[in-house]
Structures
1.
Amino acid sequence: MDTIAAISTPRGIGGIAVIRISGDRAVEIVDRVFRGKRELKRLESHRVVYGKIVDPETGEIIDDVLVTVMRAPSSYTGEDVVEISSHGGLIIPGLILEILLKNGARPAQPGEFTERAFLNGKIDLVQAVGVKEVIEATSRKALKVARKRLDGELSSRFDTLKNQLLDLLKEVEARVDFEEDVPPLDNSILRDGIEKVIQTIDILIEKGDRVQKLFDGIRIVIAGRPNVGKSTLFNRILNEERAIVTEIPGTTRDVISEHLLLGGFPVKLMDTAGLRETNEKVEMIGINLAKESLRNADIVLFVIDGSEQIDPADVEFFRRIEVPLKVLVINKIDRGLKADKAKLREVAGENPVCQVSSLTGEGIDRLLDRITGILEENFSFSGELNVTEREKGLLLSAKSDLEEALKVQKEGYPLDIVSFHIREAIFRLDEILGIGDIPERVLERIFEEFCIGK
Ligand SMILES: Nc1nc2c(ncn2[C@@H]2O[C@H](COP(=O)(O)OP(=O)(O)OP(=O)(O)O)[C@@H](O)[C@H]2O)c(=O)[nH]1
Ligand SMILES: [Mg+2]
């Protein structure tokens, strides 16, 4: 395999940068450009040595560096890895990389170091995703989940499921091959076993989906009729003039979103177009986008103008929002509350009501506390793990294989048909972990999302 190199630290001004190189020729290539007390090929594994990087063509000294050598198989990729710590900045790391490339390395693709770690059996595919997630986590909560994945906790869940299925398969196959020598299969044990696995899959998906929101951001959508002050509230929560505010109804057309942390929870806050009947083309598109955001929302902040009487259209709309977590936000209370309080309660039903002035900031802290409370109640997980879209797809497909196994068993098909379906489910779990032949394009799709140098 080629020897690959990349700058692993972010581009830009910084104290140091790390250039990483991995492959059979890693040590040899760096030796060509490194002048230190000792040649790297004579250095033991996991030792650091000081020296200079020199362009062998011109003899020019590029930088003082510390070089670490990690020999196969005890390295991140499982291959020989050399890491060069140089000065950071805009020029030096790029120059060093260039010299390495001129001397026999090739540029690494995004995630290629991690892909090699996977191909060399250092980590499985589930853990590989964890590498990306620990790097990209934007909150402590997300990091905790990613850390567990990287440590193999999720992998071992999949492994347990697989072993349960293997046990069942063994029972079934024994009857297929040597029916006369073994007592007949206890159907209820088989059914219970399969059902238990299906149940575990359901729980993994249900919880995993919610935990995944810690990475994508919990979607909080601000909605309501035009001009009630949605964009003003959006800006107020963000503490910046992000969305355009005017007194003209129908100002916001696009969905505008920003990521922020609320009470330590990663949130994607979205401002949407005011909901009303209209024939204006652009506004109509905006309203459709707003409705779509509402359908995908985790929490809805439904804003009404409290300085006016309650509009029956508002009541209707609030009721129709299917998202279970919704807050009725009564805005513009700086102008005095004209809406009838009893009526407001009735509209809100079981849902929390908050009175605010997005203009003056009054009541905003209380609203944010309310939202944080909802987040804590619904998105706090202990010991939970996330599942990616890919994993979810494969889990669902394993589940349908198992349902099929139950069905054919119930209908009295021969046991080898039952065993076929169990086996298929096991293959799906293997695919999740990356066991067996994983097509190149599947790996590509997983690793292309990584950054270069990881
Ligand atoms: N007095 C008062 N005025 C407010 C408050 N919030 C918003 N406004 C005003 O109400 C008008 C509409 O505000 P926006 O934030 O643009 O309302 P919107 O709901 O985003 O409107 P659309 O984008 O058209 O749907 C502006 O003139 C704001 O200054 C408030 O709390 N008090
Ligand atoms: Mg607006």
2.
Amino acid sequence: MSEEIVLEAQSISKFFGTITALNDVNLKITKGEVLGVVGDNGAGKSTLMKVLSGLYKQSEGSLFFSGNKVNLNSPRDSQNLGLEMVYQDLALAGNLPIGDNIFLGREPVKKVGPFNFLDHTKRKQLTEEHLAKLKINVKSADQKVEELSGGQRQAVAIARATAFNAKIVIMDEPTAALAVKEVGKVLDLILNLKSLGVSVIVISHRMDDIFSVCDRVMALFQGTNFAESLLKDTSRDEVIGWIMGKKD
Ligand SMILES: Nc1ncnc2c1ncn2[C@@H]1O[C@H](COP(=O)(O)OP(=O)(O)OP(=O)(O)O)[C@@H](O)[C@H]1O
Ligand SMILES: [Mg+2]
């Protein structure tokens, strides 16, 4: 089994004024691993992910990508290292087609004189190839995002995050807003990413999500590492206990 550590956070603390959101937190994830992160509201999950993605600068501690210590100053820095984050609000443009959303801000372009023209044919082809690779079913890459179901939108957000050779994808509550039948599709997508060798960190309050896709689960409690386990060595009741700060 591959034990290549693709991302490691060591002793991360994050202070907002007098608030300690994270205190000496450690996290690591190996290639192709799906790590579940759980914790009560305010436990520090989103803050930790924002530190990993370079949106927030940690107050203390270090980040390592593939063993190299890095200094992230923006999400662009972590993207360049192969990390993509799917935010809870998805940040998609509803009035634009799927293909445009996937390439928003990073379109394949044809240079014509001093101007950059979007190459629509190329973009559509790349979008269709990418959706097929992830086994995402939509009627057409030209369909507008506002016409899609919640689950399809989540799939487009994940497709966008993984279109540029992501090695690590972070998803903050990817199923929270979805109907039951759409949840399964998003979970399948996570397993597809895993099979492609992508490492996935998934924050979820739903034990069904955690127990259907994760290899390992870690719990934060009041900004600290509280417990962690391989999934096969724990149970739903135990993990629910960790969220509430209980250990046997
Ligand atoms: N920008 C900020 N400024 C001040 N405090 C913040 C900021 N972001 C987060 N916090 C505080 O840090 C703590 C952790 O918040 P965080 O959003 O990481 O929690 P969470 O585990 O993601 O919770 P939830 O499950 O509700 O999404 C909370 O006490 C929160 O109020
Ligand atoms: Mg959160």
3.
Amino acid sequence: MPVGRLAIGDWFVPEGGFDVDRDVSRHKPVLLGEVVRFLNPRSEGVYVDATLGGGGHTEAILRASAPNGRVLAFDRDPDAIRRTGKRLASYGDRLRTIIGSFADLRAHLEEDARDARDGVDGIVADLGLSSDQLGNPERGFAFSLDGPLDMRFDPTQGPSAADLVNELAEDQLADLIYEYGDERRSRAIARRIASRRPITTTKQLRSAIVAVLGPRRRGIDPATRTFQALRIAVNQELAALDLFLDQAPRCLRQGGRLIVISYHSHEDRAVKHSFRARPNDEFHVLTKKPVVPDASAVADNPRARSAKLRAIERIG
Ligand SMILES: C[S@@+](CC[C@H](N)C(=O)[O-])C[C@H]1O[C@@H](n2cnc3c(N)ncnc32)[C@H](O)[C@@H]1O
């Protein structure tokens, strides 16, 4: 995979991180106009935002579907739900927030007391992590900020990145870094990490990687690939995406659309294959090629540079 297609470098995180105590989001929604155009929200419609984050997509859908459109919004991160739920409280019961994984989409929709259990008019999933998570040193996602090596979307569940780094066998760690980070020097990096255990902070991890790769490679921080790999593994992101892609198309009503925005080739491949595998008489792929942001959108929002949007419509 070419370096330019890497998901997240944190070169756009301000020094020291964002001011995380404020209930505002620093996350700029990616491909916002395109999401609204594909969903074409209407009043009376019911929509799912599978990844609420800072609520940029949700708020645009709520506005476009006024006065009665509803959004059910998921996030695994309780803090994102709390902060964004508070920010969007003025939309009242048009917005329902759910702390949980989009991997359990169908079960959550079946629990809906209103009409979502019968199918929804649109679903959007904007994968990966938000700028609010990346910019908070306490969450341990950013190699440019020192903090505990955590990386869990839901900090109440599952092993952290530090647990993986300190407890996996060296060859398992190397495989993980190679598979999810496309890092060619994975074996040498895993060896160096193993020799420096315990590693408990982002700074310690980055320093072990820099000891192998040197300070910078073609403008990309040497820690980018290894951090991406650990984040994907900690949150079992590809398994969650597969479960979501299995369920989401059949949660749509006829005419309903599913939109997925991905940020690295593993995710995009999964989306592309899953859309193509759907029967032609039931689903129509709306994006032969992925929609990508134009140069001005990338200049305005560096996080958008690797985004790829794919959409499918239920026709039968
Ligand atoms: C790129 S951000 C979404 C940003 C949002 N679209 C906006 O406009 O602010 C991705 C969000 O998805 C959440 N997330 C990641 N995996 C998830 C999963 N399996 N289920 C639900 N939420 C998930 C992350 O916690 C993060 O808040």
